[in-house]
Amino acid sequence: MNSLRKKLDKLKPHFTEGGRFSKLRSVFEGFESFIFVPDKVTFKGSHIRDSIDLKRTMTVVLIALLPALLFGSYNTGLQHFRSVGIEATILQSFWFGFLRILPLIVVSYVVGLGIEFIAAQIRGHEINEGFLVTGLLIPLIMPVDIPLWMLALATAFSVILGKEVFGGTGMNVFNPALLARAFLFFSYPAWMTGDKVWTEGLTAGQNIVDGFSGATPLSLCAAGETAKLPSFMEMFIGTIPGSVGETSALAILIGALILIVTGIGSWKIIVSVFAGGLGMGLLLNLISANSYMELPFYYHFVMGGFAFGAVFMATDPVTASQTETGKWIYGFLIGVLSILIRVLNPAYPEGVMLAILLMNVFAPLIDYYVVQSSIKKRLKRAKIAINT
Amino acid sequence: MNNQEKEPMFSAKNLKLFTAPLGKENPITVQVLGICSALAVTVKLKPAIVMALSVMIVTAVSNLVIAAIRQYIPDRIRIIVQLVVIATMVILVDQFLKAYVFDVSKQLSVFVGLIITNCILMGRLEAFAMGNKPWPSFIDGLGNGAGYGMILVIVAFFREFLGSGTIYGYPVMQKLGVYSAGYENNGMIILPPMALIFVGLIIWLQRSRNKSLIENK
Q1: Is the pLDDT at A26 greater than 70, yes or no?
Q2: Where are the domains of chain A?
Q3: Which of the 8 DSSP states describes residue A94?
Q4: Whole-model pTM?
Q5: What pLDDT does B53 receive?
Q6: Greater model confidence, B100 or A346
Q7: Shortest CB distance from A188 goes to which of B187, B191, B197?
Q8: Min Cα separation B187/chain A (Å)
Q9: Rounded to 10 degrees, what is the CA torsion of A359, A361, A367, A372?
Q10: Structural domain tally of chain B?
């Protein structure tokens, strides 16, 4: 480590202002701070620079995503072997799935980071670490069979038009990973919906065994076939068809614990999303007009992307509400809308993506009213104090 | 404008009336007028070209007519007079389209009629034709129609090419054989929101090349 530090120190002058490679400064800084804690200190005033910078925050989120990724790999293999009717060990399934998911991750990172690097050089900004998480989130919310060029296109779309035009990391209105998914959802619906896309090899017309449909729990519900649903426990553990990382509520729960314990993800948002889902679910249970509405409310938490969206998407600090009261409102409405879209809109079996993107738009408005009402309250208090 | 000297028909000033709306004073990308129809008729190239020509003719001729009678229009009812002129022109164009290119006329549906409400028209009549001679007004109308049409055709070109894989109805993508390589048409580009994004991209491109268009903060 020491020799590496010395080498970096030797190289550093070339990358500072006036050096030979000063144009590539942000690339150098990006790699340097990836390995070492940044040595920047503040000079004036009483501010303290926390060494937990963006990069380290992002690393924690990546660690929190690992359980979902590992389980996703296993489940991809499991679903594949089930569809062709072959008995496979856990390790075989995992390895098969891992090899299928790896290209998705590589494409998403290469395209996204490539654009971020170029944009940072043009603007003279630091390299934006924000993409470290987005780059892993994108493959986790895709069906495994998505063609790679579509993934690359969607990643480029979301990074350029969702992020860079607004000014880069920290300025985006929408969650970039969800934007990539929404782009594909509306551009190539044949690859993003239906029963075939969720299991490896089905779109290529592979022979499947009798009785395997590949339908996700949500599409079963949307078709009114709630009797065919897998058991609650099965859906909780996640051995069901679905997007790569979203199936296992258990793996997501582990990730959620990591985020909450380290204080990186806002527990208020996570809790309020579930509260919103619970409220809406109970309301629909009360109405019970069809078999979907009669479904116990807690089933919604383990089906589709609800848990994944609540833990990893809604908590995105950039696009969520910033105020503490705002976070409760923001999360609650995401939960309500997700279930509402799922159950009542036949065109969209899953509502989490659209609910979060819609609330992303409203987050600044929620913040505005929370701040205004706080100002009003304090003003009132101050007036009473003066009058008495 | 009151000089009695006779100006040559294609003086530099008059030519500028035509070229300015194509670039720095473009009705769509700079003044952000006429966006609705730009979103609605740009799915395919053919309707977009027909729409562009229609708007060009309507703006030019209404400008000419209003400029010719501008001295006699009572100030208080000028908007109504302008509307009557525009509506007459639009109906003429509409009937012409129905007679000669019926299929396109059907595709454009209400949007030909809605040229009446296109902000570019009223804007040019109020801002230019009411205070200028007929000939410069005619050129101004032609220029603004062309500036509008130019953006329409650019957007329609990309939307048809990427969304349907054709150019002016000719199946380019199919001839190139990209479908067998796994390529698919982008379904989102056919939806109106994508036209807005394309217009946005053109605005971005224009402003990055022409810094004087960027507003001071």
Answers
A1: no
A2: 2-35, 54-206+217-372
A3: H
A4: 0.86
A5: 93
A6: B100
A7: B187
A8: 4
A9: -120
A10: 1
